[in-house]
Design brief:
Blueprint (H helix, E strand, L loop, with lengths): L1 H17 L4 E5 L4 H13 L4 E5 L6 H13 L4 E3 L3 H12 L11 H4 L1 H17 L1 E3 L5 H6 L20 H10 L4 H5 L12 H5 L3 H12 L9 H13 L12
Parallel strand pairs: 1-2, 1-4, 2-3
Helix pairs in contact: 1-2, 2-8
Length: about 250
């Protein structure tokens, strides 16, 4: 794992140099992926890394974990509470006040990651930094990210690592066990978890994706789960490509 860490760190440095940028900025969610990316960014740019914590009707524990990561790795950070911005966007769009019990669904929930990305790019433009994404390979392959939200970034350091590999990376980077073992969540709504939303565990998804990628036999895999993963890959294809342009 040390070799992988060194390779990623050098890659981050090279990409920043190619862009003629001065450093990197990363959103700190308190989750395992952003924690790993933050630690890698600190290694790549000890003096030129900025963290941003952006609660938005979020679980207070996430903010606590995000701050603990920033302090542990000595990463300067800003806290930008997006709750009022989120409510204002909803109000001017719908003409009524936001009610978490009444207004549900992805259209509303996805305002949050898109506001977060707007915030990150504001600071990135001011500092001449690159926005570093936190999506892993599992999320990238099935499209489990918000288009123009957490998917709208400049570089993706851990997108070649499945979720199970990210857990090993986190241990090597000395991320706390509490963060490594907590249920992954995009913080889209109260009580939301990645695995509940997908209807599959990350272990199941990783196993299926790795076999598809390596062209291994998948006949022994539960066909319903296999088709679900293939469907996620297919329907999210537009997220992984530039918008089609009429010739």
């Amino acid at each position: 794992m040390e070799n992988k860490i060194e390779k990623i760190v050098v890659w981050i440095q090279e990409k920043v140099k190619e862009a003629k940028a001065d450093g990197v900025i990363v959103g700190l969610s308190g989750g395992i992926d952003s924690s790993c990316v933050a630690a890698l960014c600190k290694k790549a740019f000890p003096e030129n890394v900025q963290g941003v914590i952006m609660p938005c009707l979020s679980n207070p524990l996430d903010k606590e974990h995000a701050e603990s990561i920033a302090k542990h790795f000595e990463i300067p950070y800003k806290i930008v509470d997006l709750e009022e911005s989120f409510k204002n966007v909803f109000k001017v769009s719908e003409g009524e006040e936001y009610d978490k019990d009444k207004h549900k669904g992805l259209a509303t929930a996805n305002i949050k990651p898109r506001l977060r990305m707007t915030t990150l790019y504001y600071f990135a433009n001011k500092l001449n930094y690159l926005v570093v994404g936190t999506d892993n390979k599992t999320e990238s392959m099935i499209g489990y990210f918000t288009k123009h939200g957490d998917g709208g970034v400049d570089i993706l350091p851990i997108s070649s690592l499945f979720k199970r590999e990210v857990r090993k990376l986190a241990a090597a980077l000395e991320i706390s066990e509490e963060i490594i073992t907590k249920k992954p969540s995009a913080g889209l709504w109260e009580g939301q978890t990645d695995e509940d939303e997908m209807g599959l565990s990350y272990e199941e998804v990783d196993d299926i994706l790795s076999k598809i990628e390596d062209n291994e036999c998948v006949s022994h895999i539960d066909q319903e789960k296999l088709e679900k993963v293939k469907r996620m890959m297919s329907t999210s294809e537009h997220k992984r490509n530039l918008p089609p342009a009429c010739e």
